[in-house]
Amino acid sequence: SLPPVYIYSPEYVSVCDSLAKVPKRASMVHSLIEAYALHKQMRIVKPKVASMEEMASFHTDAYLQHLQKVSEDGDDDHPDSIEYGLGYDCPATEGIFDYAAAVGGATITAAQCLIDGMCKVAINWSGGWHHAKKDEASGFCYLNDAVLGILRLRRKFDRILYVDLDLHHGDGVEDAFSFTSKVMTVSLHKFSPGFFPGTGDVSDVGLGKGRYYSVNVPIQDGIQDERYYHICESVLKEVYIAFNPKAVVLQLGADTIAGDPMCSFNMTPVGIGKCLKYILQWELATLILGGGGYNLANTARCWTYLTGVILGKTLSSEIPDHEFFTAYGPDYVLEITPSCRPDRNEPHRVQQILNYIKGNLK
């Protein structure tokens, strides 16, 4: 079978390193993947930068022009910025437009590789910015590369399944496709009063022709691998039968992992890896994206482990020596141990949610 495509160039990593929320994260992820020599088993493809036209397949011209303008000046107090969601969570820093165009272009490049039949799996760990709206930045996301990737895949694949395993609700992607039956969005996320973005309750199912094509699985703090996998597998099994997707876009934000500053879920990469394996066994064209993940070493551990899962490789427990080795102390191992925190998900409530979703998919 064809090796996976891995979207990478030194220039791309260096642009992604500049994101203030996750400084140098892209380098840490790539360096660890390289330290385990996983890049040698993949087809490395250099990403193209997205053109204004490509970005405008989802975003409004007015928003893109404003983003470009404030990016050139590094102007964080432009009067129109508030209207476009810039400031606070999404500061209008210098060069932000180039970052957005780079990430958007990388995800489009990955999608095109799948369309061209170059691979069955294409990976862009620096993508997955799922909160951005067509005319508004949100939650550290300036450009919704996941939406751009889905729109590109729609040129070839009739029905696309988007699965979002980030800690946060994939609201930007859901909103983009809430009225269509051609894209089904499935999001497993923390749902709790006051927790960003506040949407994605189980009753949120899509609109118009897209009714029942949005699936939301609200989860409480402390969930661990076994229960999470049970939920994920139960939902995906029903989704696959009901929707019969032709391609998959999978967002694997690592902010669910134990040790993340979000301090919410209590997952390890092994649990997420089981969910990934479940999707890979469908053998569909699959676009893999990153997302959140604010404990940088754990995020690199997670995405490196998941790259190993995609390649069918078991990785050595000892972190190999490499540029960022010291970030992996004090034990310098790939494994992550769950924290001692209670799981707030009651089996009865979980079953209620699963039954509700199953009913909608029938």
Instruction: Return the structural class.
Output: alpha/beta
CATH class: Alpha Beta
Q: Please provide the ordered H/E string of secondary-structure elements.
A: EHHEHHHEHEHEEHEHEHH
At CATH level 2, the architecture is 3-Layer(aba) Sandwich
Subcellular location: Chromosome; Cytoplasm; Nucleus
GO biological process, one term: heterochromatin formation
GO molecular function: histone deacetylase activity, hydrolytic mechanism; metal ion binding
Cofactor: a divalent metal cation
Q: Which features does this protein show?
A:
Arginase, Chain A; 362 residues; globular; alpha/beta
Brief summary of the model shown:
By secondary structure, the chain is an alpha/beta fold.
Overview of the structural elements:
- By secondary structure, this protein is an alpha/beta fold.
- It has a single domain (5-361), classed as Histone deacetylase domain (Arginase, Chain A, 3-Layer(aba) Sandwich), CATH 3.40.800.20.
- Helix content is 37%, strand content 11%.
- The chain has 11 helices and 8 strands.
- An 8-stranded parallel sheet has the order 2-1-3-8-7-4-5-6, sandwiched between helices.
- Helix 5 runs parallel beside helix 6 (145-153).
- The radius of gyration is 19 Å and the shape is globular.
- 51% of the residues are buried.
- The model has no long low-confidence stretch (mean pLDDT 98).
What is the element layout, followed by pairings?
Layout: E1 5-7, H1 10-17, H2 25-35, E2 43-45, H3 52-55, H4 61-73, H5 96-115, E3 121-124, H6 145-153, E4 160-164, H7 171-176, E5 183-190, E6 214-219, H8 225-243, E7 247-251, H9 269-280, E8 285-289, H10 296-311, H11 347-361
Parallel strand pairs: 1-2, 1-3, 3-8, 4-5, 4-7, 5-6, 7-8
Helix pairs in contact: 1-2, 2-10, 5-6, 8-9, 8-11, 9-10
Keywords: Chromatin regulator, Chromosome, Cytoplasm, Hydrolase, Metal-binding, Nucleus, Repressor, Transcription, Transcription regulation
Binding site for substrate: 89, 139, 294
Protein name: Histone deacetylase 8
